[in-house]
Amino acid sequence: MNFNCKENIKMAPYCSMKVGGFAKYLALPKTESELVDALRYFREKGEKYIVVGNCSNLIFTDDGYDGAIIATTDMKGLSFENGIITALCGDTLSSLARTALDNSLAGLEFCYGIPGTVGGAVFMNAGAYGGEISEHFIRGRFLNANNEIIVLNGDELEFGYRKSRLMREELILISAEFKAENGEKSEIRAKMDELMQKRKSKQPLEFPSCGSAFKRPEGYFAGALIEQCGLKGYSIGGARVSEKHAGFIINDGNATATDVIKLLEYVAETVFKNTGVMLEPEIRVII
Fold first, then answer.
1. What digits encode the pLDDT tens for the residues 189-227?
2. Which of 36, 180, 207, 287 has its CB 3.0 to 4.6 Å from that of 107, i.e. a possible disulfide?
3. What's residue 1's pLDDT?
């Protein structure tokens, strides 16, 4: 095989929540050709597989993953030309924001501090503080289920709130092009600093978490509903609803994936019973 591959790897250290069991394989391609080789290799072996970024929005169960995890975090390469930023799938959103800053482009400041990769962001249409990746996505190069490279523009990805066509169809982002508006570098930097300060003051960044545990229900805020139900600080095992921001579930140091899953379920059930609003998890559980 022409790519870095490890066997029988515990996935907790690779996930933002720091939970999860062992994976049969962990592949870490660095280039487009290595990604193609990895996909071909595991398909030909008949192995179950999943392509991930830096696992900032997902957890693996304590039973682990009986197949191959293909992580694209080593696939990096940002460039700027003719007003367009091109990023590989493994580039972080913070790096995307810094590239925009370096080239005096405004609009991507909301990406600064989001721990996900470009690939994961396009997959779920990541967003924060009123911005979404779909607003800046121009087009991307993807691998389809036949390992063919295709190019799709934003209109073809069927973006919605925290969703895209990629969630229901096997399309793997290789690289993407983004647009932004010309701006003043000092103002862009000030906006990035402002948003980072908001994150630090309102989010429990000192603990492992997957960010927002639930999607925002229409007409409500998940964190406010959870707090309204008296669940701030509620814990199951080592998983706890953050006292700092009730929309976050944190690992207080010894949580298991089972603790996190049970707490997600308990919070959703409690909120529904008390408010009639059904919360949908934003954290993906991979089995």
1. 999 999 999 999 999 999 999 999 999 999 999 999 999
2. 180
3. 81
Give the type of residue at 24.
K
Question: The whole model's pTM is what?
Answer: 0.94
Q: Which of 273, 270, 267 is nearest to 281 (CA)?
A: 267
Distances in Å between the Cα of 186 and the Cα atoms of 61, 69, 104, 195, 285 are 44, 41, 9, 14, 40
DSSP designation for 285: E
Task: Work out the angle between the directed axes of helices 185-202 and 93-102 (0-180°, nearest 10).
Answer: 150
DSSP letter (8 states) at residue 92: B
Active site residues: 162, 212, 282
Ordered domains of the chain (ranges, CATH): 4-71 (3.30.43.10), 79-187 (3.30.465.10), 204-286 (3.90.78.10)
